[in-house]
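$ fold --in a.seq
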Amino acid sequence: MNRQRDPIIALATAKGRASVGIIRLSGEGVLQISKALCHKDLHPRHATLLTFEDDQGDLIDEGLAIFFPGPNSYTGEDVLELQCHGSVAALNLLIEHCLKIGKPHRLRLAAPGEFTERAFLNNKIDLAQAEAIADLIDASSALAAKGAAKSLKGEFSKKIQIFLEALIELRALTEATLDFPEEEIDFIEQHDVFNRLKNILSNIQDVKKSAQQGAVIRDGLTIVLVGQPNVGKSSLMNALAGEEVAIVTEVAGTTRDRLKETIQIEGVPLHIIDTAGLRETTDSVEQIGIERTWKSIEQADLVLHLMDVSDGAEISALDQELINKIKDIATKQVPIKIVWNKLDRASSCHKNTQNEFYVSAKTGLGLEALKQELLSVAGWQPDAEGGILARQRHIEALLEAEQFINNALVLLKRETASVDLAAEEMRLAQDALSKITGEFLPDDLLGKIFSTFCIGK
């Protein structure tokens, strides 16, 4: 039994009270299920007003039914959409009724992302476009939505396809020269291979920069605020968020647990984590909070170590000890920026350096410079070309392709050029790029990607 051919059903709209709810069916047997459910033939791609009744003839709801015959549908299969009132109870009753009608056709509930997975498997979209659908749904800013829409439209995929076609052509010419050395035809000169390969590499690097910008828009930056009690971590979090999200008092140890808030600066999401003040304490609750602080640091992209500048801009022995411990426990090379807070109480003037910033969370003094530094650490370049909403696996694939092409260029530059080895490096670059669109990807990874989608999409 092939589950990929089974008809599937799911709620396509979000669960909860709403004016409209949409149920989607797709697969073999949907046409027959449609006739049994609607008691009439539906005109393709036309909305038909119907009453939906259960087995006893009792009314479930009134709504619209639209039939999309394959392959001209979202999934490439026969698709039926039922548009009803957004009552959770009524929608569940209608889904249960459909499952009863569709039992002879093996109708079942869809797995997360299964509709989009079928669209991919039926060549309606490539993998980058499929991921863009999920990213568009999850977009938390206008920039993220625009970037996802670009990828969904196929802008990213088209660029990758151009690289693939250029590599395939270059490989074919190179391998023809190797396979038919006795022919008088010059398929391609070695210096032409080198120059064309350099051009492909340059274009890949440009797309990689755009993809990296997109990854910043999509994933943002996780920033952890640390420091001794009462240095103003919660005040800084409130200042960055633009609202009071953390409790601020003069009592040391007010923050006992992690508090996370996502803010946006120029459309870039920054995940700010306020943590318990780091100190020796006998309070068991505060100790748990401090332990969680260290765990947060392990996952951070950036640590802001706050200190009180009103006591003088000298790093204390305890703060230096904390900085050293942060460096020791971080699972990656996490940058640490020192933020001297309470600038409004400082007795002398101070100037920002590359790793030290002076602010007043209370008055907002110095906050703009700190925000720009956060964007810089995230890799955001406001003047760069608008990024496509890329994922980390896309960037890794582009980096792989870049490395393989660099290897090929090195081989071609040698006095005794290894053209056959260079052709193999081109093939590896081609395989790396094919991972992005899904032409060359293991099935288990495909399953992992689609499992992160919404049910009904």
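$ fold --in b.seq
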Amino acid sequence: MSKLILWGLSALDFYQHGDFASLPTLWLDIAHQEDIAPNAAAVQYLEDRLPWLSKPFHVIVPSRQQKRNLKDARCHVAEESLWQNCYLRIEQGLFAPSPEIAFLQSNWSRDLAEVIFKGSALCGTYGLTPPFDTVFNRPALTSSERIREALLAHRDIRGCAMTRRAAPWILNNAASPREAALALLMTLPNHLGGYHFARPTLNYSIELTSLARPLSRKEYYVADVCWPAQRLVLEYDSDERHLTSEQLQEDAVKRMALQAMNYRIITVGRLQLNSVSETRKIALSVARILGKPIRFRIGDFDAKHKHLRAAMGLPCWQ
């Protein structure tokens, strides 16, 4: 059976939903391998092994001569920088490029706001279990720094231009899609629909001082979205994560401990994040604490803001 190497969109689909932690990495010289030409049997094998992977499947071939016209697969010719490279072995005969390369490949025809959000998801500490997309914790697949390194090493990949525009705005360490969306709404520039505040640190570890330790059994807390210098924290309070009275009590203790250290905490609920007007109220509170008045540099900010929300899967409730 021929080997299949996932390309761009399909590789990202695997990384978003698959278990990659223990997969081996192999060096492949795909330019000189005859068996990297997809056929119907290989495509069926891919579907059997990864039934949740979205169709059509996107796969890499070394040259135009090895492209095939198949029902559920699209072939993409590998750029020269990928001919000799490391690939992750998913299953026997199934491979994927690194998360950074898959991200570059997938960006040649995407919207900039979507690319930034997808990049932040790739650099986040969560995955999504198919088919219901329940969030689970895991190590980050990559980082914004490694994406920039891939841009330098693989300049011939078609998606580099769009990725280069997105790279300065990609955030590391988001713990959920909506946490990433909240941070990007606050930090992206006005022309992309954001409020353009200074870049925060996501899931920032705050060690408790002697003033706060009597209030809590913990030595530190992790703040969802934090501006450490200004001692401002945004906490996203999702319905999915806070279900028990014990968790609610723990959240209250966390707030008291951080407030004892002069942190100001803004809690953002699911319904608030779903609402355009409520999000603006949050932004006004952030602006006041950061000492940065909101001044829109463009006339169509509302349209750009709604476009950004749509790209991140957020409603535009009023």
